[in-house]
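User: Sequence in, structure out. Go.
Assistant: Echoing your sequence, followed by the structure tokens.
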Amino acid sequence: MAHPPSSAALERSTRRIVSVTPMAVSCDSRTFKIAASIGRFGFESVVVEGEPGSPPSAGSDYFTLVSCSKSRQLLSWEQDSEASRSGDSLFSGVLGLAAAVKGVLDLSIRTYRCMPRADLYYLHCYLQYPAVRLRCRKDGVSFIYDAHDFYSVLSDDGREITRATKFISMFHLALERMCVRKAAACVTVSDGVAALEQEKFGRTFVVLRNVHDSRLDDPGYPSMRDQLRLGDAFLMVVVGNAKPGGMAVEQSIRALSELDSDVHLLFLGRGYEPYLDLARNLGVAGRVHAPGPVALEEVAGAIRGANVAPVLYWGVNSNLERCMPNGFFHVVASGIPVLYSVNLPDIALLASRYGLGLAFDPTDISSFVDSVKRFRGDPRQAGEFQSAALIAASEISWESEEEILGRVLEPLIAPEGRVGE
């Protein structure tokens, strides 16, 4: 069980920590969990979200939510994505850069206008750094920067790198570099990403893994197995949003077409609809399910009873290669065995340490098919994997990560003074 920072001098009832995210907090599980933990520590926890979402239910009593917009705005990286496809001429590059700068300014202005005063800011994306930096200078306080990804390589996703993409990436890198330099502390999601960040920016990042917080679960949410009326079908589940160029979604559907007719594949998240045409063309549309995302507190219930969870990331860039996605921790917390890629060293190390499942190559259809057949063909071994996953779930908990968060926060909150109204 996690405990608040130990310093008795901290008067937590008077200290306010404001978390800042460009997304709706209901779609940003890491911000959600950290804000709830800050509230559990006894601080006044406030979340400023860049766009509105469905009001979170579980855990939201630990923080106050402030939305910067009443309607969804086109986020900066979405504007950048559109601009980067506009061509490869110098003019297109300048237009793309201008769109990126405008996106950051628009987001920062909206963020700054709705940010309350705080004793400490917790910044979840460098795109809002200008707003947070101005607030910190005005109020004489500091901020923590939490890098959810190794952002500087995200544009390397297998698609064409245009001049606009290069200009936008250079601007974003410069902005993030300023953010890292001015932050009082830097945090990220895995040992691998922390090493990449340190090499890029020359400073240490504390590792706070995006482990699932079972205290937020809705135990009454019905499983997708029940909702889809799958009965005793062999159910494979993939948790997390589809990432272009970085997930072997197409290969998994093609592999499904070579497996027994009682094998089903469930994608829980955004971005899988474009793959449903492939499923129809292969004659497996009835066995591929993409119901979209569910709320954070509903994920554990939704995947309950799944047989195995293939990890489809294949490391198209160093960020995905060294990632530890929250979808992986969701299935571990639910005691579901995994199929994992040996080309993802952080995931492979954890999976092999606990004996969570079988190694495979998600980009190789025959490897995918053979691994599923091996898993189904040895019920005893499958049971051992499930038992190991349950052990891992009991040891890999957000409560443990909370203790790390507490150690990051404690030296940055002064014991005297109050937050102004």
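User: And one key feature?
Assistant: The radius of gyration is 22 Å.
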